[in-house]
Amino acid sequence: MTTAPRQPEDDAKDRQLESARVDPRGTHLTTDQGVRVGNTDDSLKAGARGPTLLEDFHFREKLTHFDHERIPERVVHARGAGAYGHFQPYDDWLAEYTVAEFLTDPSVRTPVFVRFSTVVGSRGSADTVRDVRGFATKFFTRQGNYDLVGNNIPVFFIQDGIKFPDFVHAVKPEPHNEIPQASSAHDTLWDFVALQPETMHMMMWLMSDRALPRSFRMMQGFGVHTFRLVNAQGQGTFVKFHWRPALGVHSLVWDETQKIAGKDPDFNRRDLWDTIEAGNFPEWELGVQLVPESDEFAFDFDLLDATKIIPEEQVPVRPVGRLVLNRNPDNFFAETEQVAFHTANVVPGIDFTNDPLLQARNFSYLDTQLLRLGGPNFAQIPVNRPIAPVHTDQRDGFHQHKIDVGRTSYTKNSLGGGCPMTSGAFPEVFSHYQQKVEGVKVRQRSESFKDFYSQATLFWNSMSQPEKEHIVAAFRFELGKVEHREIRATIVDHLNHVDHELAVVVARGIGVRAPKREVRPNHGLSSPALSQLAASADTISTRRIAILVAAGVDGEGVRRVVAELRDRGAIPELLAPADGTVRCADGSDLKVDRAISTVASVLYDAVIVPSGPESVRTLSADGYTVHFVAEAFKHFKAIGAFGSGIELLRKAQLGSVRLAEDTETVIVDAGVVTTSAAADALPPEFSEAFACEVARHRIWQRETSEVPA
Ligand code: HDE
Q: Which atom of ligand 1 approaches the CA of 369 most closely?
């Protein structure tokens, strides 16, 4: 993955931010008023052991500022990580449908800021919990800011935004004891689900591997709602937005996610930061599904219902352009915490539909920023400022940073020369799409929204066998945590409307009676694009490979394997019993990347055990290292060993996997790649076969139930 040289627009946001950056190098400490301070360790006292004096303005300023450092965390999506980058369309084909320049002019590279997030947990919660991930993109276009505030799952829990507070109250920690943190596995959420069957499609996705992304860089993004594109003639076309990651869609294993939550709660955030710092810039392709307005009623679901997808087999996703993230923020609070997304931030060429969830969001996001960012001037915060010129008659309010000159702040005016002017026509000015609206005032749900199960069944039918097994295990885990048996039973009833077999196997794991009869025959339809196995990518780029070494290791073999993996874009790391260097069998030294005790197998994608009898003896005598290998096996990861390294695999008792014995050929069995050869004799096929297994991400065919890790 590389990025083309920067273009001027690409830099526009960065240049704008430069004026807000403050660099402490070579400076002296001052108060907020710019008065130099010589001592900030001792407060001003009446005598060295006396009381602190009110007169100490530096002390009071420092403490007062500190006391006010926190702002409310986001009511949902509180925990996140962000990065800057750019978006560029491939060509102009979309110009037939929209006047939005950033989607249609291939010479324009638009700066962006993207924030990824979990939904339920607090700011300090773990990254790897079972949850939806937010995927919010702010495009700093030349026509103003456009925000695509999406998720990594293409549907939502509810159909009407008025239910959002109820849903969020149910899924957040329970109010009496604030337990559990960042988890949907508790009674109030499943009570809500039991009483709102429209959630069933989304719950299928939430129980799937989509809710456990290996990396933000390896997940899809979706706009979720049906939006509208508007062309130069003012004609509208329905659109669904999709982001596809260049590295494919990949997930963690549930047991692994729980362990990572303790070993490295910043796992996804760190991954994004580190890869950008290393110049491995994450990429996505933007795609659109387009539906002409004449086909509004051509589907067996309602396009305005955000609990439904448009199957890709029915309406293909057409590629539009490429998103690259290439710069980490300078300051988490200033940028990632203060970035303010809003679904109503649209530019000419993009408009809304009557999706009642979207309509609610268009109210909620502005409202929440007023509280979270302390007033109406949050668009002036550096990260939020458009690169398009801003001229309004809005004035005053908390944290006003502009100095508007002149005596007029109203339109129309003559005293200010009539400025700012309101002249201009679409597409120069934003003009709301002219949709005819007619209706009786009703508080009611459309009949066309009332099929709650068909697409849940479609999703289930589209899963591969391992994906199905994970969904069943997730339902059993989550419902197994629900104390009220009647809630478990009601969910099983709903599952029986999705698929009878599914309901039966889930029921068997949670101690409620399995339904006897099928109540709703499975329609048998599937959408292959829904399986994330269909969205994998044949690459090991940025995969972290642990190489276990100790004194006496085969230095030549290690160097070769490391070089071969690096050539393929992977990130090999040498882990040893202690940090520093290890002396190889040939007398050379190898630099260790980390002590094994500071990491764990769950933080790596694959493991290699190199040859070296002495090294392998040391490693085999350490239970933590043996567990490292067994656990990687348990989590279906590729494992490689050469020469005497195979002995450590034997010690780890990897079930019935076939390992190389006295043969220099490469044996591959269930993702375990071994050869008895070492050093010079190591065949090139070893790294090749190993890379192939790593690219598979996980080897699901592996039998792991007897492996105790
Ligand atoms: Fe949000 N959502 N949401 N949401 N949402 C927020 O805005 C809301 C919904 C999404 O990285 C809040 O600034 C309502 C769908 C993301 O800063 C809040 C409804 C989708 C983010 C809010 C929804 C999302 C938010 C909290 C139902 C996917 C994080 C803080 C009508 C398409 C953005 C904030 C970031 C954040 C309201 C439903 C995605 C309270 C009322 C559907 C990615 O305004």
A: 13
Q: ipTM more than 0.95?
A: yes
HSE, CB side, 13 Å, CA atoms: give it for residue 326.
17
Which strands sit side by side in the sheet containing 638-642, from one edge to the other?
594-595, 571-576, 544-548, 606-609, 638-642, 672-675, 667-669
Q: What residue segments make up the domains of the chain, in order of their start?
A: 80-384, 454-534, 540-695
Report the chain (709 residues): mean pLDDT per 10 consecutive residues.
Answer: 52 95 97 98 98 98 98 98 98 98 98 98 98 98 98 98 98 98 98 98 98 98 98 98 98 98 98 98 98 98 98 98 98 98 98 98 98 98 98 97 97 97 94 95 97 98 98 98 98 98 98 96 97 91 98 97 97 98 97 98 98 98 98 98 97 95 91 93 94 96 88
Render 325-376 in DSSP notation, one character per residue: EEE--S-IIIIIIT----TT---TTEE----HHHHHHHHHHHHHHHHHTTST
Tell whether ligand 1 has an atom less than 6 A from the beta carbon of residue 361. Answer: yes
- Ligand 1 center–CA 150 separation, angstroms: 8
Burial of 477 (0-12, 13-18, 19+ CB in 10 A): middle
Q: Do residues 656 and 625 make contact, with C-beta atoms less than 8 angstroms apart?
A: no
E strand or H helix that includes residue 145:
strand 144-151
Residue whose CA is at the smallest distance from ligand 1 atom 9: 361
Q: Which CATH class is domain 80-384?
A: mainly beta
CATH class of residue range 454-534: mainly alpha
Q: What is the pLDDT of residue 664?
A: 83
Residue nearest to atom 41 of ligand 1 (CA): 361
Distance CA 167, CA 188 (A): 9
What is the DSSP code (8-state) at residue 113?
A: E
Q: Which atom of ligand 1 is nearest to the CA of 225?
A: 32
Residue nearest to atom 11 of ligand 1 (CA): 115
424: left (phi over 0), alpha (psi -120 to 50) or beta: left
The answer, yes or no, to whether any atom of ligand 1 lies below 6 A from the CB of 161, is yes
To the query of whether residue 399 is one of the catalytic residues in this protein, the response is no
Mutate to test the pocket of ligand 1, among 149, 335, 338, 384 (most ligand atoms within 8 A of CB): 149
- Among 58, 86, 145, 151, the active-site one is 151
Is the CB of 150 within 6 Å of ligand 1? yes
Q: What is the pLDDT of residues 386-444, one digit of tens each?
A: 999 999 999 999 999 999 999 999 999 999 999 999 989 999 999 999 999 999 999 99
Q: Whose CA is nearest to atom 30 of ligand 1?
A: 74
Task: Clarify whether 523 is annotated catalytic.
Answer: no
pLDDT at position 8, please?
Answer: 55
CB atoms within 10 A of CB 253: 20
The matching CATH number, chosen from 1.10.10.60, 3.40.50.880, 3.40.50.720, 3.30.70.3040, for 540-695 is: 3.40.50.880
Substitution candidate for ligand 1 out of 71, 74, 342 with most atoms within 8 A of CB: 74
CA 114 to centroid of chain Cα atoms: 10
**Ligand 1 site, residue 151, Cβ cutoff 6 A:** yes
Verdict on whether the full-model pTM lies above 0.95: yes
